[in-house]
# Entry
Amino acid sequence: MSRFFRGGDDSSSESSSDEEELYSGSEEEEKQVDDKTKSDDSDEESDEGEEETEAESSDDEGGAQKKGLSRFLRDESSESEESEVDEATAKVKSAKDKRFDELEATITLIQNGHKNNDWASIANEFDKLNRQVIKLQDGGKAPKSYIKCIAELEDFMNETLAKQKVTPKKMNATSARGLNAVKQRIKKNNKDYQDQIDAFRKDSEAFMKPDEEEDEPAPKVSKVKFEPVSADAEDDEGFATVGKGGRALLFTPESIFKHLRTILESRGKKNTDRLEQIKIMEKLGEVAVTPYQKIRVLMTLISARFDLGSGAATSMPLEHWKAAEKELGSLLEILETEKDHIVIEGAEEWDDDEKPPTLAQGEKYIKIPGSVVSYVERLDDELTRSLQSIDPHTSEYIDRLTDEAPLYNVIFRGLLYYETLRKDASLEVPQESLNRIVQRRLDHVYYKPAQVIKRLEESFWKEASSNLDSLITPRAQSGEPNQLINTLCTYLFENSEGIIRARAMLCQIYFLALHDEYYRARDMMLTSHLQENIPNFDITSQILYNRTLVQVGLCAFRKGLVYDAQNTLQEICGSGRQKELLAQGVMMQRYGQVTPEQERLEKQRQLPFHMHINLELLECVYLTCSMLLEIPLLAQTGSSPDVKKRQISKTYRRMLQYHEGQIFTGPPENTRDHVMQASKALAAGEWKKATNFIHSIKIWDLMPNTENIKAMLAKQIQEEGLRTYLFTYAPFYDTLAIETLSGMFELDTRKVSAVVSKMISHEELAAALDQVTETVIFRKGVELSRLQSLALALSDKASALIETNERTLEQRTQGSTNAFSRKDGRGGQRGGGQRGGRGGARTGGNTQRQAGGTQFTGGALGAAVRG
# Structure
């Protein structure tokens, strides 16, 4: 084997020497490539590699001349070649040396900026310098050249600012921004190296002398040195948290604020491991001793957990939400116990990480900047986002909904904390913060039944200590939900304005309507004039207004006020956009008119499923009320051609026309089919059949007091059936006994007399009531021929065309046609056409009734108040 590696024998053949030369040349080439790529190896390792290469590539001690490929790899003068290789090897630098060179280059650029007074480049290089020095710190000490640079930079900045004050000169905008940036950062940055900077300024020459440790040669093999870690810093498995540079992080009470400062500065930056930061802060919370340390750690930890749900489409993880809820409760508990520590908006930030703040003479509180109400609002919003993303028909939604009770307790505790702050007049606690947290509490109770609110209140007061009490909602009111809602809303009426005040009004109206107090809810809605200003409010408040409007309409229906209910629900249900207006779903628009951004915003505004109003029940109530009003109206306009045709519900009319246009109609399958079949039966006079159709709708079981509602509907159908019969068959009668009508519709004779009298007084029926014989005497008018009927129809169409032309002309001429309209007698309102409508609500009154409109105050509600 020796002949392949070393040619020791002179009598060896030429072929063997060629093989030997070829192998040695290739060996030499590989070693040179390895030496160039391994830049971090020590000089001794490279020297040893070269010695091995020389030993393998040399022929003999006589120095015989090389042959073959070795002639192209090395020259005959091997000594000169070896010296060149040594120089090349010596020029290879380690990674640490390269970092030092980059640092020196950056320092040179900053010094050049001093000469040119170029603060823009100084600011950029200063940021770069601070990033570079992190990798070169040894045991918390920065390189001396860095200390010299930042000390000189601070002095130069102070000189520049002093010159600006004495002789102000207009500085370039870019340089001015750079100067301000350096001014803001250098004070905070130099605080971490203040000891070294002071040593440099005391004796710069002694400071810049190299230490003896730096002159010692580096060891051949760099071994990892493990620093001792305290028992608290280690995990149960024996692992320790390792920071930058491979050093274990020591968590001690003295180092808490430095760790928090590092975490706060890294928030929002890319490639930040948020989960790792949360773990570090959890360990900091374990070693925190003083109340100030615990408060600071808890506030930073809660904010870091909220960062996990900062995405637009993602909600906060469940385990982190529950952890944040517990930590916020712990924070409030500490603030309740430690009365001299308060978290308040507008407090000054404490910059000294070495020592915590202390109470000075004459001070009562240690003020910590922060906002408890912001934490409460964010926790509430994250729960709402989580409920939006969960399928409501699964058990997971029910389990998640159980977290609302502890959230309500946190909101209540936050309210009590702000009440205690407001007691001290020396503290400037903004009223807005208290209003916001009261509004959050109101948002969680206004849509709930009274029994559920009572349970929520009782559960909180059981957990709370006996010495706690609320000024706004005392403990004694916990068993009275009506008084609680009234107290919260009254407080917001008196102490807030704008959107919060309007939302409080809507919440109280919603609660009253939900608990069947229709007249109070109606009066509050009308007197608040919210229907005039609601378009100027935000979308969330508009959604609450729509929900309140619908709830008032359902309350009127439960009270038996059919006309009021239909007139109130017309604005929402008549549009065909119930899902969108109530924030219970996104309507699919034709031809893709909604952009992805708009669709995303719509989904974010959706209400959780447990707050929804049943849309099928809402449609059933609206169509039933429309049927009870439209069928008699159709009969009236069909028997009297001179009465101007009008519509109460276009949506209902459209459905009825579609149903009548079908060739074959099977048995009813859904709510809409039941109402349409009942409408046909009622129009034909079959009121019992119509009642059966309406009663067979299963959705009525979702309403409280189902039997009472069905009895009310049966009574309404009887009355409207009587009215429809009289409108339809009045031309064929001269007289009609009241007793006959009572037997046909199974109504009391007094009720029949009341209905007929009301129709006569409202000029809906051309008849007279003979109370002696108890008969209805019909007046026969002049029967119109077909030609006369067509002439009246043509006259109506011509009048409508004239009105349209005048309206168009007035818009184009900006109202200058008014005088022209008065001259030719066509100005103002023309008489004729529609005669008086029906009366007001079914409950009585002779107020003349108009057609139902889309305005909340223009129909029965307004008429009832004015009457």
